[in-house]
Amino acid sequence: MGRPERHATIADVAALAGVSVGTASKALNGRGSLREETRTRVREAARQLSFQANAGARSLHSGRTYTVGMITTDTIGRFSIPVLMGAEDALGAGEMSVFLCDGRDDPIREQYYVKTLLSRRVDGIIVTGRRTEARMSIGPNLPVPVVYAFISSADPGDCSVVPDEAGGARKAVEHLLAVGRTRIAHVTGPEHHNSARVRAAAALERLAEAELEPVAPPLFGGWSEAWGRQAVGILLAGRAEFDAVFCGSDQIARGVSDALRAAGRRVPQDVALVGFDNWDVMTEGAQPPLTSVDMDLEGLGRSAAEMLLSAINGTASPGRHEHPCRLVVRESTIVPLA
Amino acid sequence: MGRPERHATIADVAALAGVSVGTASKALNGRGSLREETRTRVREAARQLSFQANAGARSLHSGRTYTVGMITTDTIGRFSIPVLMGAEDALGAGEMSVFLCDGRDDPIREQYYVKTLLSRRVDGIIVTGRRTEARMSIGPNLPVPVVYAFISSADPGDCSVVPDEAGGARKAVEHLLAVGRTRIAHVTGPEHHNSARVRAAAALERLAEAELEPVAPPLFGGWSEAWGRQAVGILLAGRAEFDAVFCGSDQIARGVSDALRAAGRRVPQDVALVGFDNWDVMTEGAQPPLTSVDMDLEGLGRSAAEMLLSAINGTASPGRHEHPCRLVVRESTIVPLA
DNA sequence: GAAACAAAGGAAAACGATTGCCGACAAGTT
DNA sequence: AACTTGTCGGCAATCGTTTTCCTTTGTTTC
């Protein structure tokens, strides 16, 4: 029952093993010159007391805490999670622990967290968020390295790792061209949203390279299924025929898919469909499953964490780094045989 | 450019203010008896050096770190996030920082994290996961309090905060009865899954209290939309008529909704539909929007964190605590007027 | 048998902050 | 003038570890 009263200290271990604290420390860390018998005796004592060295006291001496802070500027969401997990994974392998801070879009809260993290002497900070848009630097000259992941910093001197959304959009269009579609529409999120603009521009550019025009100007709206459904109405009402739709998100794509089916158009036979995000719930829930662009957020997070680790070890890599997207092909663009 | 070389220490502050370290400390913490002028002089020096007391050094003295560890036993997912955020919120208000650890269903990894957290001298640990099922205690007698959130511990001496899934299921059925439905079916997840069994049993029980039988035995399958669609096939093939389906998840409900529409049954006129989880993507994406049971995971997380704080302060509340669910009514159960 | 040397482990000084105790000085009381 | 009282700040111990320097042994060598 009950919990052990307090944590064992190295003094307890030393006493039990009948040596001095210094010797105990050396024994446990493989330093100094000690008899093997002494080492094992100390190790045994430590085991018996389930001794775990106090990391705080240790870092007091070493100057490093082996912790990093992770701040999500807006609420932790669908996009931050994989980034976060990738980072946590990469950092965990380097024996670093992660402080999680949820900024909730509140600059005050954010600054409070920065202060707290600094007082905890984190070795570095990762900043992430829910949109790729550039944001203000969290602090002009902090005493520790900072890496922005997914989101990017407005200060070009900061290190940011962002998805190559333009590249992803180009891959989507390229794939549609490769499966023989030429009358392509684009339905995407709100125009004030950076991602929507970037993806749309890249898609148009790739079409132009193939000497094609979109069947209609890009349709900007929202990121939701409802907008996808609505957009199909607009497309069908227009006089132009279309044989493919590249959507700015999987949710939009799913709405488009449902509406097309309701209107009697078959996917992919009549209209091929590509989404963006590769969100399993949507890609697998849609009928047929959706081809989609995957931003590899987990990889991005891992990569950001690795950059942070390098920066901590002295080699910073300032600037904006684009992490490649990849296309995941499913039945919404491939006409089944027979 | 570059970063400030190192963190200022209280010794730097003291030197700049022309006082001793002890005095500086007192000035900054409002202890001891000092002239107001001295205090402001020290504070000014601290501001100038942007001094932030080293939390590690401080906790060495106080014995408390004001940090807690948060372990997700399986991967951080849709269910852990809100729990996590609620907890982070409650803890942040108490000035505590959170270490995030992703156990990934790997007991080795998990034990490693427990060790790490203990070495970091966290004041407490919250354990969460993706299923409500009881799991083994993460450690029989750890030196710090532990609270299980969402998931529960197999050891009844541990403190667990779990959603009242049975209560939620009862509310769902009650609502269907209240809107006049009597021929109710239940489609849910795999039978080996604790949540599926508990919810099904509670639903049946509530029906029995109204002296009703379900129109068919509960249909156990998966949690997916695909299963929902498939289940509709089974129900329609059966000879029994039904006027409502209570689904074990929103994804199932959405599948059911789509399949019913495809089969020409109107929701809610012909069949009323209730889901579980109140997952916005599904409830809003479905047509019409879904009535659903909300487990209030954020509230649950907050509540767990509060229990942890009490435990840290000496008043533990061992045992299993059920957090109430609430029903969110939408158009899938309410027939529109005229 | 004495000097030289290596091996093993102890003593103490850091690291950064807090805090109890004590000394110095000024002001007020007989 | 000698005392008490109170105010202000400095000194040093403390927290748990690591690490540098020493001291104590025991062994080797001439």
Total number of strands of chain A: 14
In the residues of chain A, how many domains can be counted?
A: 3
CATH structural fold name of the largest domain in chain A: Rossmann fold
Radius of gyration of chain A over alpha carbons?
27 Å
Spans where pLDDT lies below 50 across 5 or more residues of chain A: none
Offer a quick outline of the entry.
2 copies of one chain form a homodimer. Chain A is an alpha/beta fold and 338 residues long. Chain A is 42% helix and 17% strand.
Structural description of this entry:
Two copies of one chain form a homodimer. Chain A is α/β, with parallel strands linked by helices and 338 residues long. Chain A has a six-stranded parallel sheet with strand order 2-1-3-5-7-13, sandwiched between helices. Chain A contains twelve helices and 14 strands. Chain A folds into three domains: 10-53, no CATH class; 66-164 and 297-325, Rossmann fold (3-Layer(aba) Sandwich); 165-294, Rossmann fold. In chain A, helix 1 packs across helix 2 (21-29), helix 1 packs across helix 3 and helix 7 (165-178) crosses helix 8. In chain A, helix 11 links the parallel strand 11 (272-276) and strand 12. Chains A and B meet through helix 4, helix 5, strand 2, helix 6 and helix 10 of A and helix 4, helix 5, strand 2, helix 6 and helix 10 of B. The structure holds a DNA duplex (30 and 30 nucleotides).
